[in-house]
Structure formats: structure tokens, C-alpha cells
Design goal:
alpha+beta, three-stranded antiparallel sheet, 4 helices
Amino acid sequence: MVMPSRAVTLIDESRPVTVDAVVQGGSIRLAPPVLERALGWELKPEGLCLADTCVPVRDRAALVGDDGVDLRAFARLIDRPLAMDPDEGVAVLGASAGDRSRRLAAMDAPDFTLPDLEGRLHSLRDQRGKKTLLIAWASW
């Protein structure tokens, strides 16, 4: 029996997208076409593919069920960290260890845009080539 779907916010590193997903028992499942539209990964007979790169799926039943692709199994298969709160309808896929390692070696900070106290938006890319001091604070 396929469960009803609901809106879930899926964040791929920093790019949010709202998708229809099945949320049940602490898991989030996406229909294969939804996974492809949201993240670019396509389920093919040879495995899970993104453009010309395919990852073999040894245990297809653990990845795909009647309700779709299990997001936790998908993240594990493509070697990316996943943080999710199914009850709140949000999931975040982080960068793979290899991507993080390359970024750290390059010493390039990822771009982001944040408002100042007056609400004006500022992007890190606008500061490239300039000495910049970033101060971060969080209440938690």
C-alpha cells in the first residue's frame, strides 16, 4: 500500500527545493522521477546515475520500495551526509567527504548571501580579492 505524499523541503547543500515525499516511521521516500527532478540522480538498471556517473546498487530493495527511494539509503549510497527531521518535513544533504576535502585544500569559502542589520543583502562573492573579516554569532 502506497502512503499519501506531502511537501518536504529538501536542501542539497545550500539549494532548497520543495518536493512531494512519503514520510513514514522516521523515513522520507521520494518517487524516482521526483529524485531526478530535485537532485539530478536517475535510477537506471545499471544503478543510480548522475549524468555519466553511475553508482551500482547492490541491494535495490533496500533503496527502492513501493513508496519510492529511501532518502537515507540514497545518501549512504552516494556517500553524502544526511540530516533530516521527517516530522518537520525537512532533509539536508551535505557535501561528500571528497568534495569537502577538495574545498578545504583549495581554501575557497563557499558563496553565501546574508542581510546586514539594515536588511541589505551582501554576498561573499562580492568580496573576492578583498580582505574580509567575517564575524558569526548564534544564540544557541
